[in-house]
Amino acid sequence: KLSRQTMANWILQASDTWLRPVYDELHRKLCKETVLHGDETTLQVLKAPGRTSTSKSYMWVYRTGKGYKDTPIILYEYQKTRKKEHAREFLKGFSGICVTDGYQVYHSIADEREDLTIAGCWSHARRGFADVVKAAGKKDVGIRLSVAYKSLQLIQTMSRYEEKLAKMEPAERLEARIHYVLPLAEAFFAYLKSKEGSVAPKSATGKAIRYCLNQERFLRVFLTDGYVPMTNNAAERSIR
Fold it and tell me: Could you read off the pLDDT of 146-172 as tens digits, one per residue?
């Protein structure tokens, strides 16, 4: 009979000896790409050395974009914290655009470098307005006149165009975005700025407006590069 500890040690040793070189090589290939996705989520690790069972840990994920050959590269990295140095270390060999949510850590890393750009996620921009509309319910006829509903409609129209452009080559997609999607994005941000003063800042709609305006610079990045997706959904699906 083999103890659980013995078998666990075998797995750890085999992984470190035989799988670590594979992981490192995939990391090198990943960093040669021009567009990546990044995300992180909480993780509970039981019986970790020096930590209680209720300690909060994190699993970070980095992956290639949707258009990467036939098989994407998806790498996971366990860390005890959500601190900036983890993402800084992982991305130090990467030059290009990294698609993320609105987590400030990625933005501050990009501010340190000239060869790293962060692109925002329109799924996160949509979420605040969608929650307001959903909470109102279908029976609330007045919701259709609300700032949240009109903002949501603009984002959904942009998303429908993106679905139609999905099979295009990047250069062709960028040209179509500039023609069809850019005017919608301009209208979206102009509308939010016009309504910002008339919506209570601490309301759900007010918070959604503030989030989008704070993220405007990052949310616009996909309009400058046909390889960059509109959302970070690929990373979110991977982290689940």
Answer: 999 999 999 999 999 999 998 899 999
CA atoms of 132 and 151, how far apart (whole Å): 11
Q: What predicted TM-score, i.e. pTM, was given to this entire model? A: 0.89
Coil, strand or helix at 64: strand
Contacts of 183 by beta carbon, 8 Å cutoff, 6+ apart: none
For residues 91 and 88, what is the distance between their CA atoms, to the nearest angstrom? 5
Confidence at residue 139, expressed as pLDDT on a 0 to 100 scale: 76
pLDDT band of 54, cuts 50, 70, 90: confident
User: Vertex 114, ends 110 and 119: CA angle to 5°?
Assistant: 45
Q: Average the pLDDT over 13-38 and give the result.
A: 95
CB 165 within 8 A of CB 230: no
Cα–Cα distance measured from residue 71 to residue 93, given in angstroms and rounded to the nearest whole number: 22
The tokens of 178 are what? 């500039």
d(CA 181, CA 220) in angstroms, rounded, equals 11
Three-class SS state of 35: strand
